Amino acid sequence: MVTNEPGVLSQVAGMFAARGFNIDSLVVGRTENPEISRMTIVVNGDHATLEQVRKQLAKLVPVVKVADYGDVSYVERDLALIQVSTAGATPTAHRGELIELVNLFRAKIIDVGHDSLTIEISGTEDKIEALIELLLPYGIIELARTGVIALARGSTTSGPRKTTTRIRKSKAVTKPGADIDPSSLPPG
Q1: What percentage of the chain has pLDDT greater than the value 90?
Q2: What are residue 111's phi and psi, to 5 degrees?
């Protein structure tokens, strides 16, 4: 969780680059609190590397909270748009096969062209990778992915969370977001 202000993404990406950490996926979006954004960062590495990443992120001024989902149960989603060729000896046969694949993966066809289909799929990275693997022989024309977003499963608080806490603008605060009530943040 980071303060929603200009330059935060640049600071986080700069920290990763300066230390030679590779980001596999990075997604940034608003939360229920307009002053806080959620960054979901996927990094592969051993326990020591991931611990170093977590500690370095926590040191950045605009970072309010760092949550590691490595040891907790969580749900994740990734979204992909895949444009696939239907051109070939029998385009209608290709379309039928592609429609069957799309249905098996609970994906959707969102656009149909003369010699292509555009497919929308959301789910885990593994699910999307499996569909991409099966679509390769048809000819993937273009592919766009959002990256992974994740939330811890269940609730860590009893009852509804308060979401009305705001960051107080105060010169006495040395770290933006330090005065945010932790109970107003999402679990994880």
Answers
A1: 51
A2: -155, 140
Q: Determine whether 80 is exposed, middle or buried from the number of CB atoms within 10 Å of its CB (0-12, 13-18, 19+).
A: buried
pLDDT tens digits for 59-82?
Answer: 888 889 988 888 889 999 999 999
The residues, any chain, with a CB within 8 Å of residue 135's CB and separated by 6 or more, are 82, 84, 98, 101, 119
| Secondary element (H or E) of residue 129 | helix 125-135
Q: Helix (H, G, I), strand (E, B), or coil: what is residue 148?
A: coil
What are the distances in angstroms from CA 67 to CA 63, 82, 122, 127, 187?
Answer: 11, 31, 23, 24, 9
Q: Full-prediction pTM beyond 0.70?
A: yes
The answer to the question of residue 91 being in a domain is yes
Contact 114, 38 (CB under 8 A): no
Query: Same domain, yes or no, for 12 and 38?
Result: yes
Range of the domain at 40: 1-73
The CA-CA-CA angle for residues 167, 173, 179, to 5°, reads 40
